[in-house]
Automatic annotation (TrEMBL):
Main location: membrane
Lineage: Bacteria, Bacillati, Bacillota, Clostridia, Eubacteriales
Name of the protein in its database record: Auxin efflux carrier family protein
Keyword Cytoplasm attributed: no
Bilayer-crossing regions: 6-28, 40-60, 66-88, 126-144, 164-183, 195-214, 226-248, 254-276, 288-305
A biological process term (GO) from this entry: transmembrane transport
Amino acid sequence: MNFDIVFDQVLILLIIMVAGVIAGKAGIIADGASKKFSELLLYVTSPMLVLGSFFFEYSAEKFINGLMVFLIATVFYFFSIFLSSILFKGFDEKIKPIMRFSSVFSNAGFIGLPMMKALYGQDGVFLGSFYIVAFNLFVWTFGYTMYGEAKKGDGIKSLMKKALLNPSVIAVYVGVIIFVLRIPVPESVKSAVNYIGDMTMPLSMLIIGALISTAKIKELVNDARVYYVSAVRLILMPLLAYGILYLLGVPEQIVSIIVTALAMPVAATTTIFADLFDKDAVFASKAVMVSTILSVITAPVIVALL
């Protein structure tokens, strides 16, 4: 059953990505349009996805478990960021930030949350949302800096300020306040937020497909660096987390959420950031595409360990 659920979720992503490739080849998503779509995703739909994850009834026990997920995710992000600086030390500076970003950040939101809902029910989505909080904080600070520190005119302090005040992280602040203070949110507002947030996954995969359409098929599958990144992302990171958390005696439900999130393919944000910061967006798209295809095999195996 778990294999079927994971396979179906990954297959959905691949189908949407293929639609993006076709739209790119046909000129429907023209050159330059993907960058505007990326901005729409990062500054509008993604913040709504984050905010919508906090629309749950308050429970002290759930909140404590959620905080534990957030704390463990935070510690592991620091660990994976450090590990990535070692694993990709000798690579070209042009693609090194993409490789590091790819290994650290998984597609925990766009595919991870739907999968957690299918595997673990509504509680899985709730706990998974705390992982997404950590994801957004790190992707907009350390992740943003990985790409942005080479951009002229941006110092570390400037980047950190932008990261902590960007729409997705602001959505985290608002969401925590709503959840903890039990502020009632009208159903119409919830629906509007969720409708916009639900656009994030298909929009991101269409963008990736459009970027992939600019490259030759041979170039997509003959790059050994992409397979190295995929192995780190899909196998090394989740297995390390599983081993460490198992030895520490962390509750099974929390281990399941963390490992499931880490077993996901390279985050779609990898390509979006590469496009925004004028890095090698095609290489980033290859990393997302190849890891997503390989995750059809690896994700069910990792989840089966749980």
